[in-house]
Amino acid sequence: MPATWHGFLLGLVMLSWVYWIAVAIVVACFFARRVRPSREGYRPSVSLIKPVCGLEKNLYANLSSACAQDYPDYEVVYALQNPQDPALPILERIRAENPERRVRILVDHSAAGPNGRLCNILNATRTATSEVLVYSDSDMLLPPDYLRAIVAPLADPEVGVSCTLYRAQGAVNIWESLELLSLNVEFVPSMIFATSTRAALACPGASQAVRRETLEKIGGLEPMADSLVEDIELGRRMAAAGFKIVIGSHIAATGVDLNGWRAWWRHQVYWDQNTRAASPVGFFFTWLVRGVPLAAFYSLIFLAHGLLELEVLLVTLAFRLGSAVFCSWSLGDSEGLRALWLLPLRDLVGAATWAASFLQRKIYWKGREFVLVGNRLVESA
Q1: DSSP 8-state code for residue 227
Q2: What is the Cα–Cα distance from 208 to 238, expressed in whole angstroms?
Q3: Each residue's pLDDT tens digit, 135-175
Q4: Where in the chain is the domain with CATH 3.90.550.10?
Q5: Residue 160: enclosing H or E segment and its boundaries?
Q6: What is the DSSP string of 196-210?
Q7: 38-259 belongs to which homologous superfamily?
Q8: Cβ atoms 139, 63 nearer than 8 A
Q9: Stretches in the chain below the pLDDT threshold 50
Q10: 3-state secondary structure of 117
Q11: What is the distance in angstroms between the CA of the first residue and the CA of the last residue of the chain?
């Protein structure tokens, strides 16, 4: 192969080294700062909305953590669409165990569009009674100071959406460990890097807070009901209206619930489809920083020329694992540290799911099948 190709491939691999060093530096700077509210003691009334659809691992513990918040004035709204949802008895148990809390269970089959999670949130928002709305997914385990942390940035009237970070935990098999790595050493650090450098907009939907009046100013949630990445749509509308999006350094926990290769593959492709729909151009160029598959390809091609090429792969793995160790430590992710031996496999398969996200038009969510048209969901017949 010509020397120009040799240098080109090596340059791409080295670009990933620079990226991972930059990610570690940006993550360190992110956690070194703290978001401070402009008014101390800002404690508006809050409606904590939890969209629920079906049974999940650790569902009782995750949902009941919403009732253990150290916050003076809030209600909890569990929102479902199916009156036969198997999660309903769990919600009734949680309500019975917390008589001192304002806990409501809303069952409303209304659907403004095919995005079931968004429709659950939308239905609950219409009945919520509070000034501030907090949207927190059903698989989130909330620490007692969660509401205080996520609401605080809204004391600044220029902030439209306040979000918190989250880390995956509770992996019990190899597929869940691979999923945990995808979140904790890939998605979250990349999101911190993108927002801190202003390379891309992020507005993580699993954990958001917004003032009701601000939401009304941008037209509410209903126009996003057929969107795959409704969180990014919300962020874009907020930014277009002149509001800021704040992602705080507070960390909640989310679960991983996968039972085999097929489920993991589908979910990895789903994550990449979300990222591609949110930023098609930016996602396409992420191949430039996929150092492990690039280094493996480089080493296989040039291995016959000597040991230098194999050393490139080893150096690439060192940079990748070093950055991952630092990011896991920053997130307090001890599980990820123990699972890092799986990271090269995750990165190699990640190159395949990246490609599949351009070819695969089907989306699978909670037993439903959709066709992706741009950023819009169309439910399969």
Answers
A1: B
A2: 13
A3: 999 999 999 999 999 999 999 999 999 999 999 999 999 99
A4: 38-259
A5: strand 159-169
A6: HTTSS----TTEEEE
A7: Spore Coat Polysaccharide Biosynthesis Protein SpsA; Chain A (3.90.550.10)
A8: no
A9: 38
A10: helix
A11: 50
